[in-house]
Amino acid sequence: MATHKNRPLPVRFGFALRGIAHALSSEASLKFQAAAGLLAFLVLLLLRPAALWWALLALACAAVLAAELFNTAIEQLADALHPHEHPRIAIAKDCAAAAVLLAVLGALGVAAAFIAHMINN
User: Fold this and answer.
1) Do 27 and 34 contact (CB within 8 A), yes or no?
2) Count of other CB atoms within 10 angstroms of residue 94
């Protein structure tokens, strides 16, 4: 059995890039979230806030995209192992989707705080 463990760092980095590329090509929600993140960074480029806002945005975007990638991985794995509907697999998929939702809500909280900060300053 082939394994990805203990391969050289550039090879493992390639695995990660391949995963991102696959998810971007197959998941509409990831495309939307990545585009929203890019738009948010463009807004920061335009408004030039303090470095803290850049860090908060980077963390929020990374959390959303990571959650979406985990969700995609869980869905792909579950569908490969058990292609038929099963209540416990549905729960796993629902929990993964809930993780994405919580990450998105957190990112929206950062956006709301940023807007409030910009209005009050």
Assistant:
1) no
2) 10
pTM of the model: 0.90
Q: What is the C-alpha to C-alpha distance for residues 41 and 46, in angstroms, rounded to an integer?
A: 9
Angle value at C-alpha 18, between 13 and 21, nearest 5 degrees: 125
Q: Which helix (H) or strand (E) holds 68?
A: helix 51-81
Cβ distance 86 to 36 under 8 Å? Answer: no
* Token pair 């807007």 in the structure block, residue: 115
What would the pLDDT profile of 36-52 be if each residue is shown by its tens digit? 999 999 999 999 999 99
Kindly state the tokens that stand for 86. Answer: 């099963």
Phi-psi region of 6 (alpha: psi -120 to 50; beta: other; left: phi over 0): left
Show the domains of the chain with their CATH numbers: 28-120 (1.10.287)
**Within 10 A of 37 (CB to CB), how many other CB atoms are there?**
18
60 burial via Cβ count (<10 Å: 0-12, 13-18, 19+) = buried
Q: Which residues of the chain have pLDDT under 50?
A: none
